[in-house]
Amino acid sequence: MDGAEFSQLKAFVAVCDERAFGRAAKRLAISPSALSRTVRSLESRLGIRLLNRTTRSVGLTEAGSILYDRIKPMMMGMDEAVSAVGAYQSEPKGVVRVNLPSIAAQIAVLPRLQQFRLAYPEVRLDLVVDNDITDVVAEGFDAGVRIGGQISRDMIAVRITRDLRMAVVGAPSYFANRPPPQAPADLKDHFCLTYKWKSTGALYPWRFEGVDGVLDVDVENVLTINDTELLLSAARQGIGLAYLIEDLVGPFVENKELMQVLEPFCKVFPGFYLYYSERSHMAASVRAFIDFMKVRGF
């Protein structure tokens, strides 16, 4: 059905409802003559009279009654559907789907989740943890979370954490048999646990601040894992050294379960950003989540 056909049917239903061209034209905000031409165009297209007209009244033919009985519920259903969708634009409700890495979920989203739920009880969050880079638009997500440098330039991004820093950590049991490294170059003498991207198979680089700038160190990978939680667990068991975001390992360093080394050399990098495709016609629930997650003061 094209736009003209829909307009004709809408005009026909309005005339049937009001039983008068004048009142129907006022309802549709058009002139009675324009309304009459629209209904006649519908009758011409269908090849049958739908309305019997006199100077004082309008009645339905048998064909008109059949069409009205079929079309009226559909029109009402469409009006109800449009109103229901409009509610999503005006008030925060419904599902917000967000794709994010596990670390971002732990340090940026989960700590604020309870406050968000209290503020917006009718919004349901669907958090999909995915440590690989995902096309959030193609996969049907409302937004995604990634480190600033990983976000495509055609996306809109808002910061949701401060700058972060990497950390090299190991368990006391691991250091019981080896001296802690004093410089990145010393890592050649240590067993290292490295994160591997699932999609590409590439290893996450061990990157440090050297005397001459950024320094990538080739480490001895005794274990590669594509899950940061397992990587952290392996480090806590003393299997080797792990290179993870400082906020993630901080609690284990504080309780002495892990020891942090090479702190002067560990890089600071842009924190996590929440990103999405466009601002226009955004559902109120998505807009509420974005505004709630923003970090002020940057």
UniProtKB/TrEMBL annotation:
Tell me a GO biological process for this protein. Answer: DNA-templated transcription
CDD domains tied to this protein:
PBP2_CrgA_like_5
Q: List, alphabetically, the Pfam families matched.
A: HTH_1, LysR_substrate
Classification via PROSITE patterns: HTH_LYSR
- Residues in a coiled coil are none
Q: Which PANTHER family match?
A: HTH-TYPE TRANSCRIPTIONAL REGULATOR (PTHR30537), HTH-TYPE TRANSCRIPTIONAL REGULATOR PGRR (PTHR30537:SF1)
Of which family is this protein a member? Belongs to the LysR transcriptional regulatory family.
Protein known as: LysR family transcriptional regulator
Q: Which organism is it from?
A: Phyllobacterium phragmitis
